[in-house]
Amino acid sequence: MKGRFGRRRLGASALVVALLAAVVGWAVWPEQDSFRTENRLLSLKSGPDGNQAVDIDTTFYLPEGASADRPVPAVLLAHGFGGTKDSVRTDAEDLAGQGYAVLAYTARGFGRSGGEIHLDSPDFEVRDAARLLDWLAARAEIRTDAAGDPRVGVVGGSYGGGLALLLAAADPRVDAIVPMITWHDLAASFLPESSGRPTLDGVFKKGWAGIFFGSGGSGPGGLGGPAAGTVPGAVTGTEPAPGIGPGTGPGAGAPNPACGRFAADVCAAYLEIATTGRATEQAVALLRRSSPAGVLDRIKAPTLLIQGEADTLFPLSEADANARGIAAAGTPVRVAWFTGGHDGGAGPQTDQDRTKFLTVQWLDHYVRGDGADPGTSFTWSRLAGFDALDRGLVATGFRTADYPGLTGTDTAAGGGIRTVTVAGPPQQIANPPNGNPAAISTVPFAGVLSSVVGGVAGDLPGQHARFVTEPLAEPVDVVGSPTVSVRAASPTGEAVLFVKLYDLGPDGTAELPSGLIAPVRLSGLPADLAGAAPVRVTLPGIVHRVEAGHRLALVVATSDQGYATPVAPAVYSVGLGGDQITLPTVAGEPIATTGVLWRWALAALLAAIVVGLVVVLLVVRRRHRRHDTSVTAEYADIPLVIRGLRKEYADGFVAVSRVDFEVHRGQVVGLLGPNGAGKTTTLRVLMGLTQPTAGEIHVFGHRLVPGSPVLSRIGALVEGPGFLPHLTGIANLRSYWRATGRPLADAHFDEAIEIAGLGDSIHRRIKTYSHGMRQRLAIAQAMLGLPELLVLDEPTDGLDPPQIAEMRRVLRRYATGGRAVLVSSHLLAEVEQSCTHAVVVNKGVIVAAGPVEEIVGESPSVQFDVSDPVAARAVFNRLDGVRVLSNGDGTLVVDVDGTARSEVVAELVRAGVGVDRVMPRRRLEDAFLALVGENSRGSGDR
């Protein structure tokens, strides 16, 4: 993960005072750089004997004002696997802006750094990092605790997070660490087994292992890791660390093409496991050498563990094991989960703000020595819907005083357990030969690869068994690892199975939270299920709300694209080992939003002035809401009536002078006008995003003001919505609807999806969607609840011609059954074909309104529907003054230039061309230009 170190309020009002100073500091943070940078290729000596030379590419960020007389604390910043120091540049700049000296570097084997990749080996990568601490300690600008001991924190994500843990265990000079989305046991991560069997029996995670190996074996830069460049204006050069001689650069020797820049032992271990699909003791020992699991008791640096909930590489269980091991040694540990991860990215901005604040708070207390003790409370989040203002995804954060773990059994820390009954008969499932075809639960780095698999996902017929619960009577917020019991029988005595827990909606749609599954390898199985013993399976930790009325489906499958499975085909029998699914929960208090925190900050900065303005606004808004209870009888059955609308800004600019129009049931009304005519302002006023200077808007007779209940009868797409890419289309729609607070039964998902024409693609993840599909999903979101008035701003923006044609059909289908549509568009041909009525605005006033055919009016051009367009064109070309303007399927539009239509028709008949229809033809574009003028620029609408 790329860290995003920032502000986030972590409690109710009791925490506001403690955070206010930090927030104000961020608010006034200067935009210009408050640091300088130095690029250096440092020559270090490490390796098992401490005498092997290597060049490490670094960038040193030094805050302005730091000097020998005013030393500052430092942060060693490590990147993720396949990256370079440039991958963490934004994070380094953020921390440098907070007053830390930051040393960002490219790990050995990547980018411009020399050496080979040893997977965070204590003898190599960890020793390299210790030598970088030596270099920091020798800088006069760095605060030290003793000679050679810098005041330093270590921060990193994934590969860099593992480095932070291992370095803290090896080097007591580290004062605090913030490892993010990283591992506990690298062997168990790539060879997971969820029934408690040894790692040697783990199921090889071939998908992620292939990505890992490929990104390290591709030469300098790796996957997503471009070679490091020079920061403009920075100092460059090669400098040995204290007492260290020259080293070797990346060009010191040609890499083995089979292994890239991996060390030989790492490459051999991967090739053997990838070939056989089974681990060896030597390979497990090698991976555990690079794992914090065996050294957690040596970590004395206070540790903030940040882990992603959408992470099939290093799931929540990895951070859980690290937290328990470090805390057992008496070291302060804090755990934070967020909605992103290796599969979910950085998460919504609300999550990024929270983890950013936690990181700075942790470093400030334990490295800088400022601020109160942040404590060891636990924070987590789940997706709550979409922001009402910018339509981006919002994650709701929660906190509890202690970390309860994944099981829900620690009731003192807020843990709890819910059980639900699951049922279903024993079933037979087939293991496909050589694991092909296989189900797809998730795709590593799906943002890059999802286009390859398209919509092919889910469990394959004949390869999975399904057991289902009854609908839940009330919602359950799962926080932790669910557990189930299954039984299995196999003719070979062995089986590899994949256990999954789906959330089934009332409409039958299934959601697999974050694509997480539990692989198990069973041996000693009987041939008959009657003799099989129950096996308890612990599923990956999740944070997921199962709504009331939803069911849970326990699926046991034989294949998964991401894992290695037995080559030989076989048929297994599987059944339930018990009738209970155990769901862990955590009782926590919501974390206040960033918006609330900013209101406190503004109140502190502006004091009585802001309070007075807020009071005035509240009074005005309350008066408006009181007026909203009245209904204007003559407008009661009209979806939209706008009367005398005017919008004038404080500087005297008039965006809308006077706008009056109506939208009736069954109409699709196009709002037209040149750029700056006032269209956007009209829509913003309609949706309550800005207040009019004068005039009124009535929706079904109710005067429209912010907060009006009648707004629930309007669906709108005025700005592009934000969708979470790793969730399906239907999951995004459900998240949005939950955010509205209305009952799920009122959403009309099926109808909206059918009208938008999404079909089966609604069950695909957003990251596989084309632009046109995202636009149709946005339309479906606006249609949820089947609002009686649909307001769309440029719905065809960015669509190709087939998609535009489909959107045209969508609008026509929607404006049935008494509903109405108001659409703003600059595509006049589309308005002409899809809209029944049009309103033309120019310079803030309406210049025409009515049915489209009336606005188009009479025409000097004539449309001929003929039996033979080619022969007809030849006839027209022979006639003086007759000019063909365009043609289509059986249709010709002709400028007759005063020639009698009867004469033209006669010529066609004499030539043997059948004439089906003759009618005047004038395009809406012609009428539009006549109304507004070809050079009109409107009023400069804002």
UniProtKB/TrEMBL annotation:
Q: What is this protein called?
A: ABC-2 type transport system ATP-binding protein
Q: Which residues cross the membrane?
A: 597-620
Q: Name one GO molecular function term.
A: dipeptidyl-peptidase activity
The family line of this record is: Belongs to the ABC transporter superfamily.
User: PROSITE patterns, from UniProt?
Assistant: ABC_TRANSPORTER_1, ABC_TRANSPORTER_2
Q: Which organism is it from?
A: Micromonospora pisi
Does Hydrolase count among this protein's keywords?
yes
- Pfam families in alphabetical order: ABC_tran, Peptidase_S15, PepX_C
Where does the ABC transporter domain lie?
A: 640-868
Q: Which InterPro entries match?
A: AAA+_ATPase, AB_hydrolase_fold, ABC_transporter-like_ATP-bd, ABC_transporter-like_CS, Galactose-bd-like_sf, P-loop_NTPase, Xaa-Pro-like_dom, Xaa-Pro_dipept_C
Q: Which UniProt keywords apply?
A: ATP-binding, Hydrolase, Membrane, Nucleotide-binding, Transmembrane, Transmembrane helix, Transport
- Superkingdom of this entry's organism? Bacteria
